[in-house]
Design a protein that fits this description.
Layout: H1 3-24, E1 44-53, E2 56-65, E3 70-81, E4 87-95, E5 104-111, E6 116-127
Antiparallel strand pairs: 1-2, 2-5, 3-4, 3-6
């Protein structure tokens, strides 16, 4: 191979590697996370407790509803708070299952040690049904 051929291969390969690595770069969020679902408290409640585990804690509890709606793909947001109530760490975690009227779902989220914790619904999807109607297309 000639020096020109080698240069013609190396330059495009370097540019591709540079573009791929730039596309993979991630940035940290610029501020705290907030629930994507406003007013979730109207449809559900959360009871949680904290159990020390290793050098951290596990925040666990139940999400329950008395709402006539059914929810699935549920995620909770757990905030670790310092003594003044400022957020020091956050974790979003999936809650397995479907939450319907009169039911409850269990969740468990590992967290770093903190003075206290706050748990909120981060997101969910309302499960719609055709209520027994059959559509013909």
């Amino acid at each position: 191979m000639t020096a020109i051929t080698v240069a013609m291969i190396r330059v495009p390969a370097l540019l591709v590697a540079l573009l791929v690595s730039a596309g993979c770069a991630s940035t940290a969020p610029s501020g705290p996370l907030y629930p994507l679902v406003g007013g979730w408290e109207q449809h559900a409640s959360i009871d949680h407790q904290v159990t020390p585990r290793g050098d951290g804690a596990v925040v666990w509890g139940y999400l329950q509803t008395g709402s006539p709606y059914t929810f699935h793909r549920i995620r909770v947001l757990v905030d670790a708070l310092d003594p003044t109530g400022q957020i020091v760490a956050q974790q979003v975690s999936w809650v397995p299952g479907t939450l319907g009227w009169g039911s409850r779902l269990y969740f468990e989220v590992p967290m770093p040690p903190a003075a206290s914790y706050r748990v909120q619904v981060f997101s969910w999807d309302r499960l719609e049904s055709d209520r027994g109607r059959r559509w013909r297309w």
